[in-house]
Write a structure and sequence with these properties.
Elements lengths: L5 H48 L1 H6 L1 H23 L3 H14 L5 H17 L4 H5 L2 E2 L2 E2 L6 H13 L3 H13 L9 H14 L3 H14 L4 H24 L29 H9 L7 H4 L4 E4 L4 H5 L2 E7 L4 E5 L4 H11 L4 E2 L2 E2 L6 E2 L4 E2 L1 E5 L5 H14 L9 E6 L4 E5 L19 E8 L5 E2 L2 E3 L4 E3 L6 E5 L13 E3 L2 E3 L2 E9 L20
Antiparallel strand pairs: 1-2, 3-4, 4-5, 5-17, 6-10, 7-8, 9-12, 10-11, 11-20, 12-18, 13-17, 13-20, 14-19, 15-16, 15-18
The structure holds 2-oxoglutaric acid (AKG) and fe (ii) ion.
The site of fe (ii) ion has 3 residues, from loops.
Length: 524
């Protein structure tokens, strides 16, 4: 689960530095051994050459005769011993010991890291070739990936039965093959051909299999597949001759991004929500001009005496639902303290199963989180008081401060913060009512990605250290506002830190009284 947060990944760099030192030690020991043997061979060669000058007179000398005999008996035995001496075992033992004390990633972590890469690729529509070159949105961030590296991503995807991405990465592995790659073209072709077949392109799969068979004619599986693909193709050809067409559909695609508004029930989009979410994450969506021109920034003191001296800087994001961003509402030293308190307690973030009420980990929420209580530190209390000053709402029934760190590809897919009718029974804090509002503090900048997006509002909030977003999840009637559906986009480059406070209804009856609106035709 290391890939879920960046702070844990830092420990892996420490592990790697220890391993590098160990490997260097091993090389040094090997070199010492070889150096000794080189010295010996030189001595032997010298003596041997001496003897060769005049063999009989050399051997007439009893000392020479003795030394030759010695070289070939006890000396040689020593040499053999040195040759068989296993200088590696100590270093292997070291690694075994390190496994007890240092942090090592597991196979599961590798799968997770590969899936994270794929998630980034999908969400941000990143091109495989440029990713493999170490480029992210045109910026060179890392070293290039080798053919083997791409093959490994493809293999991970293959094991997930994700043939679409297997094809993309195996093709890249082929493109990046060089003369000194340890990877064989035929190994890649085997995965590529089968995944291409799984993706429905039998003709291409057959061509690839034929190429594979040119390289390895006796390949049993490939021979079997070839016969199978040929038979399948024959069947398809027979069918299309009967039908008299080429079998390819021609469906027009509706590219418009319009969708039906409904504040009180789930939407019907005519573009999949997924698409809106991705475009929002890419920064490709903007709210309508009409809304944009009605949004302002201002200073507010909310009637709080202290804020008369240092008013809050508020930026309107949306009127309905009400969403605002406060600038400079968390100090750097507060951020440092909150991060420090959270780090040792980090656990993989969970979500509530809406049927059982149980907390469980889910692929759609990947991050590490920890909860901080007001009593633990004055900084946590000060933050809660600041939220009171910002929003006028009571913190009496609010949840503890949740601190979250997102690692490679860390994200939280579109969701509502409020509990729906079917979930409300499972809601642990039932006595305090539903989550009326959310405050989300950004405790870091993020180099690329990591926006908080509201797909239905075509709105993206970009993390900026020290700012906080605030929105009401419930309408004044107490009904959940479906327009507040939001997500944390995957982080591409950087480490994203947030802290959030979920504010509940109870105690806020007078600070945010019910409205007079009557919300018809909704269940909740
Ligand atoms: O991290 C974010 O940008 C949003 C997080 C979020 O929506 C949540 O934790 O409920
Ligand atoms: Fe949320």
């Amino acid at each position: 689960e290391l890939f879920t947060a960046l702070t844990d990944m830092e420990e892996l760099l420490e592990t790697e530095s220890v391993l590098i030192n160990n490997l260097e030690g091993y090389i040094l020991a090997q070199e010492k051994k070889l150096e000794f043997l080189k010295q010996k061979v030189k001595e032997y060669q010298r003596e041997h050459a001496e003897a060769g000058k005049d063999v009989s007179s050399y051997l007439l000398n009893p000392i020479n005769a003795y030394l030759l005999t010695k070289r070939l008996t006890s000396d040689w035995k020593d040499l053999e011993q040195i040759m068989t001496m296993d200088v590696g075992s100590q270093f292997i033992q070291n690694v075994t010991n390190y496994r007890e004390v240092l942090k090592f990633p597991s196979e599961e972590d590798l799968t997770g890291a590969a899936s994270a890469l794929i998630r980034l690729q999908d969400t941000y529509d990143l091109n495989t070739a440029s990713l493999a070159r170490g480029e992210l949105n045109g910026v060179q961030y890392s070293t290039q990936m080798s053919s083997e590296d791409c093959f490994e991503v493809g293999r991970q995807m293959y094991n997930n039965q994700d043939y679409h991405h297997t094809v993309m990465w195996m093709e890249e592995a082929i493109n990046r093959l060089t003369n000194d790659s340890r990877l064989l073209r035929s190994d890649v072709l085997e995965y590529l051909a089968f995944s291409t077949f799984k993706e429905g392109n039998i003709k291409l799969a057959l061509e690839m299999t034929n190429e594979l068979l040119m390289l390895t004619p006796d390949h049993q599986r490939a021979n079997g597949n070839k016969r199978y693909y040929e038979k399948e193709l024959m069947k398809i050809n027979e069918k299309s001759v009967l039908r008299g067409d080429d079998g390819s559909p021609d469906v027009p695609v509706d590219k418009s991004l319009e969708f039906q508004h409904s504040k009180l029930g789930p939407y019907t989009y005519n573009v999949p929500e997924r698409k809106l979410y991705e475009l929002a994450c890419q920064g490709e969506l903007t709210p309508d001009d009409e809304l944009l021109s009605s949004l302002f920034c201002s200073y507010v003191d909310n009637g709080v005496p202290f804020l008369k001296i240092g008013p809050l800087k508020i930026e309107q994001i949306s009127h309905d639902p009400y969403i605002v961003v406060y600038h400079d509402v968390m100090y750097d030293n507060e951020i440092e303290i909150v991060k420090k308190m959270a780090k040792p307690r980090f656990k993989r973030a969970t979500v509530q199963n809406h049927l059982t009420g149980e907390l469980e980990v889910a692929h759609y929420r990947i991050s590490k989180s920890a909860w901080l209580k007001d009593e633990e530190h004055y900084v946590v209390r000060n933050i809660a008081q600041r939220i009171v000053d910002m929003t006028g709402l009571t913190m009496e029934t609010a949840e503890e401060l949740q601190v979250v760190n997102y690692g490679i590809g860390g994200h939280y897919e579109p969701h509502y913060d409020f509990a729906r009718k079917e979930e409300i029974n499972a809601f642990k804090n039932l006595n305090s009512g539903n989550r009326i509002a959310t405050v989300l503090f950004y405790m870091s900048d993020v180099t690329q990605g990591g926006a908080t997006v509201f797909p239905a509002l075509k709105t993206a909030l970009w993390p900026k250290k020290g700012t906080a977003a605030f929105w009401f999840n419930l309408r004044k009637s107490g009904q959940g506002d479906y327009m507040t559906r939001h997500a944390a986009c995957p982080v591409i480059v950087g480490s994203k830190w947030v802290a959030n406070k979920w504010i509940h209804e109870v105690g806020n009856e007078f600070t945010r009284p019910c409205g007079l609106e009557i919300d018809h035709d909704v269940e909740f």
